[in-house]
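WARN retry 2 of 3 for item q-0093 after timeout on previous attempt; input resubmitted unchanged.
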Amino acid sequence: MLEAMSTVYRGRFIAALKELLPQEMTKELVNALYKHNWVVYAKDHFTGPESVVEYLGRYTHKIAISNHRIQNIENGKVTFSYKDYKHGNVKKKMSMDSMEFIRRFSLHILPKRFVRIRHYGICSSSSKQKSALVIKAQLPVRIKHCPSGITKAAPLSYNPKQCPRCKKETMEGLMQFNMRGPPDEWKQKAANLLSGCKTVNASVVKK
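OK item q-0093 returned
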């Protein structure tokens, strides 16, 4: 398959060169170009939006080398793992001087005033404020239909002081954490605190 693609690509490319450069494309040069085997690199297309995001994410939201690849740092040497793509993607280890490691890592740092992600068109910083309003105005209004005779009740606000069993405001807030939740050590502290109380209602509130 790739051999056939190489032949077709070579013929079309040389034909285009003849049209663009009729004087430079001599018979000797054309014959020399046809004697070489042209290499065509082809790969499967993306299967959907998920694969596109996954592919771009390697370059936009990942660093040059992740922490789990660094195996050892000792005696001024850094040992890390890598894949040898020339020998069947075999995982190997490489050790190098720490300064050489920092030099190679620094090659992945963008120069000043360069950004990793740029937005163009309607998403550019200069036009997205205006274009977003225009796009929202053109979107159809989504109407939620309810079965006849059924009315939706307004959602009740969450009361952290109300006990889920007796429905009385007997709960006492002990700690507050963000949406990620408490660390493991704080969970253990809360368990120890509650274990010393015989009758205590407590709640953990997330901001």
